[in-house]
Specification:
Layout lengths: L1 H52 L1 H7 L35 H7 L9 E6 L2 E5 L7 H13 L11 E4 L17 E4 L2 E4 L12 H26 L1 H11 L3 H5 L3 H9 L2 E4 L4 E4 L14 H13 L8 H11 L3 H4 L11 E2 L6 H11 L4 E9 L5 H14 L3 E11 L2 E9 L3 E10 L12 E10 L3
Parallel strand pairs: 2-3, 3-5
Antiparallel strand pairs: 1-2, 4-5, 6-7, 8-9, 9-13, 10-11, 11-12, 12-13
Helix pairs in contact: 5-6, 5-9
Length: 449
Amino acid sequence: MNFVKNQNQPISVVYIDKKRKNSSVLKYLFLIFTIGVLVSSVLIFIFFIFNDKNFDFDAKVLTKNFNLFGEQKEENTPNNNVQDRKYNEYTLSRFSNEEIDRLGILDIPIGFSVQYEYKGIKFVRTPRKSFTYQQIGLLKYFIDMTPAKLLNPGPAAIITFDKGEISPRHNLSQDTIAFASGMYMFFNDISFNSIKNDHFVDNAFATFVHELMHISQFNYVFDEFGYEDALKLVEKKGYSWVDLVSESALTRSFAESTEWEYDPQRGYFLNSKENVLTTDYGKTSIYEDIADTVAAVVTTRFDLISENRIIWTLNYLQENSDSIKMKKLPVFPNSKLVNLEGANFIDTIKQEYNSKYDYVSVSTFYYDKEKSINDVVSFFENEFNDRYWTVIKPLYKTNTNSVITYEGEFSTGVRNSYIRIYTYDYVGTGYNISLKGTVVVFICGFKFN
C-alpha cells in the first residue's frame, strides 16, 4: 500500500505541477502582452513629443531626395503641395490672407487691381499708382530676357506702389525703390527712372533679377519642404519666410560653393574670408549675395563676382556662359559708370531715337586706362557678334576735334543700340583731376509690341 501510495504520489505531484506550469505560461504571456502594449504606447507618445519639439530635424531629412539643379525626385503629397491648393483671388496666390500674415509676407495694398498680365505674371496697380505704357514694355522685356529657371514658378504679381500705401508696421525704408516679399515683387517709379541717365535700363534689369531671385528663394523653400511642413516650421519656431531660406538646400549649396559658413550659435551664415569678390550689398548677408550674384550673371557683369559664384549660378540656372549672354548689352570688364548728362551729341541722338522708339535710355561708362580704345573697340566688335546682335552700322572710326572716336549701331529687334567709343582727358563735371582712358556711350531705343 505504501508502495501504491508512494507510486501514486509522484503521479499526483506531476499532474499538479503541469497544471501550475500551464497557468504560469498564460500569466507570463498576458504579462508580456501588457508590457508590449505599454511600451508601444510610451514610444508613440515619445515620438509625437520628439517630433513636435525637433521639427527642424524632420524638415532637413525631407531635403535628401531633392535635386538642387534639377527636378524634385519625390513628389509631395497633394495636401503638402502649394500647386495643389485652391487659387485665392484676394492674394493672387494659393495662400490665404491669414497664412500670408503668419509667413510675414507684405500684403497687397487694399483696392488693388490687375492692370496687365504677361506670360502668367500679373502686373498690379494700386489706388494711387499704375504702370505706364513704357514700364509695362520694359517689364515684358525683362521677363523675356530672364532665364526660364527663375520664372518657373515666377512671381504671383509685380506690384507698383506708393510708399504711403504700405503699412507702417512693415518699416519700409524711405529710400526703398524695389523689394520682394514672399511671392510678390514691388516696384515704385524711381525703379524705372534714372536721375543721372546712367546705365538705367540694365541697372533696372539687374534689380528685377535680384528681387526675382528672392522670390525663387521663397518658392524653393515650399518646393523643398512641402507646403504644410514649411508652415509648421513657421509655427513651431516663430519663423518668417525669410528665416526658412537658411534651412533650404539652395542656401546651403551656395554656402558650400563660396565662403559662407553657418554659425550654429548665432543661427545664421557668416562670411569666412576677407576680400571676397562679390558686390558690396552681397557682402551683407548670404541671401543678398545669392540675389546679387544671380543678377550679375544674368546681366553678364561677370567682373563683379568670383568665378565660383559664376559657376554655381550657371549650374543653378541650367545655362552656360554663351546662352546667358544672348542679346544682352555687353559691358567692358571693370568699366565704371560716369555722368555725361548734357553732352550735345547725346541730346542730338536721343532726339532722333525718341522719334522712332517707344522708350529711350542712355548708358555711359569709362575705362580708366590710357591708349585703351583699340582694346575696347575690339571687345565690342566681338561681343555684339557673339551675342547675336544684328549689325546696322559697323563700328567705324571718325575724328572729331582731334579726338579718336568710333561709332556704330546694333539691334536685337526689340532693342536698338547706338554706341560711341572715344578717348578722353577728363570725365563729367566736378572732377578736380584729369583722367585718361576710354568712354563708351550707349543710347538704346526700345520698340514694344
